[in-house]
Amino acid sequence: MPVVRSSEAVTHEIHGVRFVSYATPLTGSRELCAWRGEIPAGTRAPAHTVNREEIFHLLVGELLVTLDGETTPLAAGDTVIINPGATVAIENPADRTAISWVTTSIGLEAELADGTRITPPWAN
């Protein structure tokens, strides 16, 4: 039975955000990836277009999420469904770290506005 202990989770950092990876092919997942995102106060992550659906659930804090040009505030308990091909940007205007839980299928890639492609290890 694959069990990933919190002490075994792998941490990655990019664009000021910490991604704590739990479910990936390296930990025994065959279809899905899941991670905890820690978005510090004042962080504005760059807009990126995703090739896989993501389910983004806010556990703690408040965020502004811009999805395909439409910005909406999120509070703890809110979930955003990000469809393949959508462009998303996340900002934490609050004074404390926001914590999210994200799930997607294996193979997620993101493309930044400048054309840079990212294949995040927490989602592959």
Question: How would you describe this protein?
Answer:
It is a single chain. The chain has strands spanning 10-14, 17-23, 32-39, 48-50, 54-60, 62-67, 70-75, 79-82, 87-91, 98-105, 110-112, 117-118. The strands form two sheets. Strands 1-2-3-10-5-8 form a six-stranded antiparallel beta sheet, with no helix packed on it. A six-stranded antiparallel beta sheet has the order 7-6-9-4-11-12, with no helix packed on it. The protein has 124 residues and is mainly beta.
Query: What's the CATH topology label?
Result: Jelly Rolls
CATH level 1 name: Mainly Beta
What's the order of the H and E elements?
A: EEEEEEEEEEEE
Low-confidence stretches: none
* Spatial extent as radius of gyration: 14 Å
Please state roughly what percent of the residues sit in beta strands, choosing from under 5%, 5-15%, 15-25%, 25-35%, 35-45% or over 45%. over 45%
Structural class: mainly beta
Largest sheet: 6 strands, antiparallel
Distance between the termini: 20 Å
